[in-house]
Design goal:
82% helix; 17 helices; 449 residues; single chain; mainly alpha
Length: 449
């Protein structure tokens, strides 16, 4: 990849209107996340319409397992993106290519190791999840595990472009994959009745097509940095990416692990509860994309301004993100609290599953507002390079609050999904308190300097 153009002004977050730049970057990120979420949602939707309850449960549980490994790579790519953003803000674009090369050396090794592990350990992973549809879950995990190279490649490419401030190309990449996935699901599941296998093959195939087309597109566009194949090697850049990204990845993995534990807890209640939770998770997968896109955008925005020595601009962006995100979150909270059955009915025609899904959504509802505040903090801290705190905060709330609260709620309420769902916002409140305290500590340190 050759340095064919100067850094685009619209990708420069160190100047201009904060709301305009942040929203302009966030909307394509949100669009890409929505389309990416449609992989699992389309699988659930088509499997739910053309297959049985066991297939629904298998896809829901299998998706959660694969996401655990996907979050590992996503966290590391965010560390890479933060470093790229800081170099861009410092106007040291010559460092970007070597940083990407060092990161790729790490990602290639991880992809090989994780692919072998997921394929071989699929039965164990399904048993640990107490999957009601054990065989179907193993099938889904093995097929998706064999295609991890494509799933990971998309996230790596997206991380590179978000690091340089371009969220439009990742949107294009995932749009291609989404269309292919829908077509694949309709052919393999609806027409050929391949069930769980068809859904998994469609997902992996769509990612493969997306990655191949993305690489073709990248070769034809201008980039603000130079990258050579010889840059792909272990170096000090690899260690920097690992130092920055490992805490984010650890936090993401353990946070997702806490949701896997919740999934296992609810699966233990019965098939109806497990399927209802799986449906609720698909609904929330879309709803929570707003705070997720806000977090990713905030990290990219803040990292450039930290590199450009404009900390006050970074703080103003965080405050704007909290206010704007929470305003939208309130509306969504009210909707899913009172009408959670409506989005749930898109994924199943079974009244009992819809009822259980709506029950979980009522308990979860307020978290759609609270998470916008917490994720604005997380994006800010990631952009500042304070990823170790992000890890400690995330791990603490997941393991010490969310998981114990879910177990307690299940025991005290005889498996009532509304009360189990409340464990998530409780942990988010603790995270907000912790993050606010740390932000004030950093602010006081700045005043003393």
């Amino acid at each position: 990849m050759k340095d064919k153009a100067k850094f685009s002004n619209k990708d420069d977050f160190t100047e201009g209107s904060i709301p305009k730049k942040l929203i302009g970057f966030m909307l394509p990120v949100l669009g890409a996340l929505i389309l990416q979420a449609m992989y699992g949602a389309v699988d659930m939707l088509i499997v739910g319409r053309f297959s049985d309850a066991e297939a629904i449960s298998a896809v829901a549980t299998g998706t959660n397992i694969i996401n655990l490994f996907n979050f590992l790579i996503t966290g590391l790519t965010m560390g890479m993106a933060v470093l790229i953003g800081q170099y861009i803000g410092e106007k040291r674009n010559d460092k970007v290519g070597k940083t990407i090369g060092g990161a790729l050396a790490l990602f290639i090794c991880m992809t090989v190791v994780l692919t072998v592990f997921v394929v071989s350990a699929a039965p164990l992973l399904a048993k640990l999840m107490r999957a009601p549809a054990l065989n179907g879950t193993v099938t889904y995990v093995r097929i998706c595990g064999a295609g991890l190279v494509f799933i990971f490649s998309y996230n790596i490419l997206s991380g590179i472009f978000r690091g340089i401030g371009n969220s439009r190309l990742p949107l294009m990449f995932v749009a291609i994959a989404c269309v292919v996935n829908i077509i694949g699901d309709l052919i393999l599941v609806a027409i050929f009745d391949m069930g769980v296998s068809g859904a998994a093959i469609a997902t992996v195939g769509a990612q493969a097509v997306s990655v191949i087309l993305s690489l073709i597109i990248i070769r034809k566009i201008p980039l603000p940095f130079t990258f050579k194949i010889s840059d792909i090697k272990f170096s000090s850049r690899t260690l920097r990416v690992l130092k920055m990204g490992a805490p984010i990845a650890t936090q993401d993995v353990l946070s997702n692990l806490s949701f896997l534990v919740i999934c296992a807890i609810i699966n233990d209640i019965g098939l109806a509860a497990g399927s209802g939770y799986g449906i609720a998770q698909k609904v929330l997968m879309f709803i929570m994309l707003i705070p997720s896109s806000l977090m990713q955008s905030m990290a990219a925005f803040v990292s450039q301004n930290v590199g450009a020595k404009k900390p006050q601009r970074a703080k103003k962006a965080m405050a704007f993100g909290m206010a704007g995100g929470a305003s939208i979150g309130i509306l969504i909270s009210v909707f899913i609290f009172f009408y959670g059955n409506l989005p749930a009915s898109l994924f199943s025609t079974e009244a009992e599953y819809i009822k259980e899904a709506a029950a979980y959504l009522r308990g979860f509802a307020i978290d759609t507002t609270l998470t916008c505040i917490l994720f604005s903090y997380i994006g800010y801290f990631n952009g500042c390079g304070k990823t170790l705190f992000v890890m400690c905060q995330g791990v603490g709330t997941a393991l010490l609050v969310r998981m114990p609260a879910s177990i307690i709620m299940k025991a005290l309420t005889n498996g009532n999904l509304t009360f189990i769902g409340m464990a998530v916002p409780i942990s988010t409140i603790i995270g907000i308190i912790t993050s606010t305290t740390y932000f004030l500590i950093l602010k006081n340190k700045e005043k003393k300097v």
